[in-house]
Design goal:
alpha/beta; FAD/NAD(P)-binding domain; 2 domains; 6-stranded mixed beta sheet; 10 helices; 28% helix; elongated
Length: 447
Amino acid sequence: MKRADDQTSLPHIVVVGAGFAGLTFCRKFPPGLARITMIDRQNHHLFQPLLYQVATAGLSAVDIAQPIRSILRRQSRLEVMMAEVSGLDLDAKIVRVRNEAAGLEDRELKYDYLVLAVGGVTSYFGRDDWAAFAPGLKSLDDALLIRRKILLAFERAEMERDEQKRLELMTILVVGGGPTGVELAGTFAELARTVLVRDFDRIDPRRSRIILVEGGDRVLGTFPKDLSESAERQLRRLGVDVRKGVRVQAIREGEVELSDGEIVRAANIIWGAGVSASPLTRQLGVELDRAGRVKIEPDLSVPGRPEVFALGDMATLVDRNGTLVPGVSPAAIQMGEHTAKLIAQELRAGRRSPAKGMGTPQREAFAYWDKGTMATIGRSKAVAQVGRWHFSGYPAWIAWLFVHLVFLVGFRNRLSVFITWVYSYLTYKRGARIITGAFGGPPAGSA
């Protein structure tokens, strides 16, 4: 592997973010055309669609994450840098990075092309004070924290003599009826009623209250109505208390105040109601939507900056077919492929980088290929839309399992996840119910 700071005449591409879009760009970009520097604040690529499985003790952290350096080790002229972007100077084509934990002071990287794929962050709709009481789910640290809190609550319920406090310890309230909230609520219910029920002597985890609060008139509001209704029926069969048309008014330590006046006491409150773009988008000086996402050009470049591309969850676009590109992993992967192809075409044509002020070159507009939308609810329970076809229950779950195994990075991950799922399916057991930092310290490790 050739270091990116070696003296060379090759153009330099800086990629920020090792999610699906950034990683796909690096893997698809033809070798030898440019030097690439991949920057990410973590040292691993995370398969976010399965984060809820870690949070609900279905999988271990190592099953859904893999070191970036390992994934990209065969890419020539590519350097991986574990750092955080501290600033952008788009006029000078400079990215400033730092890693205070590693003792790396501010450093400047000059680029010819910049590919931004930094994803999104949990949004509390202006109530960031709620984050202390209702963690979101965007990282491995989030998933491990939620898993620890859930399992600890049941351990404390086992020792609690007061019946009311015991019930509160076994109450989990999930805010948001989108895919994340539905997946969490369904899997929490399954965990309590089919797995933890075998682990305890003094409590009956089947008496747990799993409450899903959705402000809209149906769960999975972006899905077709028949699939939304099917998802709700499957949740209720699992024992989830689905509350629709109810909004959160306030969140405090151990309690949620709802818009209908009810105050729910719950040891665990999980936030799955909102996502906004990374704050880095505000440094681009271009128009953003309400969620802070960049309104990008048809070729995926930033308006007025043909050498800068914004991909994945940080961008919003209606493609050349008139389709609003969704914030899902297949879309991010396709965006990474498209950008790699465009930049490679320009470098092969002898254009090192678009000249400042030249406007956007004539480039092929991006078109999203919708391979389907899916959401899992529990063991053998899911909903799926593939084209005009709608599936529910076991067939949808099989399709969901297959798609997620295909997208997992690395053979070891696929094999490990498949074996874990088969074992869990046949035995109703889960192998990741380990609590770390049980007496107040932070979660230690990721097993």
